[in-house]
Amino acid sequence: MITQPNSQRPLFKIGTYQFPPEQIVLLAGDRNYTKAILLDGSVWLSSKTLSVYEAEALALGFIRAHKSFIINKIHIKKITNNYVLLDHYLAPIPLSRRRRSKFK
């Protein structure tokens, strides 16, 4: 779901598109690119690194789980010692030792 820029609620900008934060399940870093995985399963690719999106994502309720993943808190299904399981995303997200305390 792509939202028009004149919307009143906060939007998360990925490339030239803007999305409501609740539509984004996670941001995954892959070298110098960032993939945004949305609720509908679509994947949006940006040529910016994950660190470029980090400050905005954290302000909108996301949390960094690993050096390669920023996840949306509202989509967390289960947290284990080493992984985070999300609704709408089948693969477990690794949880780094340094960031584990933020999930408890």
Protein model, in words:
The chain is mainly beta and 104 residues long. It has one helix spanning 50-59, and strands spanning 12-14, 17-19, 24-30, 33-38, 43-46, 62-66, 69-72, 76-79, 83-86, 89-94. A five-stranded antiparallel β-sheet has the order 5-4-3-7-6, covered by helices on one side. A three-stranded antiparallel β-sheet has the order 8-9-10, with no helix packed on it. The mean pLDDT is 91.
Using the alpha-carbon principal axes, give the shape. globular
Strand order of the largest sheet: 5-4-3-7-6
Task: State the total count of DSSP E strands.
Answer: 10
Q: Structural class of the secondary elements? A: mainly beta
User: What is the count of structural domains?
Assistant: 1
CATH superfamily: LytTr DNA-binding domain
List the helices and strands and how they pair.
Layout (H helix, E strand, L loop, with lengths): L11 E3 L2 E3 L4 E7 L2 E6 L4 E4 L3 H10 L2 E5 L2 E4 L3 E4 L3 E4 L2 E6 L10
Antiparallel strand pairs: 1-2, 3-4, 3-7, 4-5, 6-7, 8-9, 9-10
